Amino acid sequence: MRSDKHTDAELDLGPRLRRSKLDLLPILHELLRTGSLTRTGRALGMSQPAVSKALRQLRAEFGDDLLVSLGRGVRLTDRAETLIAPLHRALSEIDELLRPAAAFEPAREQLRITITTADYVSALLAPALTEICAREAPCVVFQFIDAGFRSVEDLSRVDFLIAPRAYRQALGKRIGHVALWRDEVVCIAGRDSPVGPRLAPADFQRLRQAAYTLSPRVPPQVRAMLMPTAGLETRIACSVPDFLVLGAIVERTDCVALVPRKLAEHLCRARALRIVELAYPRRQFANDACWSLAATGKRGHAWARDLLVRAAQQLA
């Protein structure tokens, strides 16, 4: 815990800075280095009268003569001698602070980008992101996690949340966002299942189902979009928190499951599954990447946003 002394000093710093003429510090540094108004003016491109005026202001600021005549020369006062080292450090640090940041170079940067999303988004995006980074940014790491979001404040813990647009809209307007891809809900069944190529509501109700477990925190509009059977009496045989597990369940049982189409296509390439269309109004949705506005200026964040869009384009 900070002491009261430190707190008081920090509170007083703002007014002291506003009263000080910080642009005089480089002139003071050169005066202390050269001990000469003429050489200081030459080094800084200033006239000798301008340097003399600056010295008068510095003497008033520090309450000390700083430089005094000694015969034909000049000597530094004791106060001036004590200023040399801290002044040099301060100007060096201010120069580093105000220096423009170097351009972000993906090929040279070491960066970790944290994304929270559903497992099926990771399955679709992670391979494309890793492939692009292998070519363009070998030291950049994408980390996918499931953080369980409740509010916009939770975004500060990660770089991006990727979720259906309705979820992003429920978080409010105080976030940044970019569109990634559109999708829709379809049904998957085993490749040899007797289920026909298209399911009406009554047909779906008769089938056993494997279902994705939606968190109670999921906004109602997202729930209705991802569960087109909401309101119907359904036969849930198994409910799991991971989309990818649904493929394994459906492949080995007589269950069907509702999943996003792009995931269904991904699962059908890896497992003995097929897509069954739904005879319901199409449940289309957009997936967006969103982020805390506080992260907008983070080094590499703009590049990462562009990379997410490029990776999503490979899903088209």
Describe the structure in your own words.
It contains 12 helices and 12 strands. By secondary structure, it is α/β, with parallel strands linked by helices. The strands form 3 sheets. Strands 3, 4, 5, 6, 7, 10, 11 and 12 form an 8-stranded mixed beta sheet that branches. The chain has a two-stranded antiparallel ribbon with strand order 1-2. A two-stranded parallel sheet has the order 8-9. Helix 2 packs across helix 5, helix 3 packs across helix 4 and helix 6 crosses helix 12. The longest helix has 21 residues. The radius of gyration is 32 Å and the shape is rod-shaped. The N terminus is likely disordered.
Global geometry: rod-shaped
Radius of gyration: 32 Å
> How many individual domains?
2
- Overall mean pLDDT stands at 85
Largest sheet: 8 strands, mixed
Task: Give the total of beta strands.
Answer: 12
The number of helical runs is: 12
How much of the residues is beta strand, in percent?
15-25%
Structural class: alpha/beta
CATH topology of the largest domain: D-Maltodextrin-Binding Protein, domain 2
Low-confidence stretches: 1-5
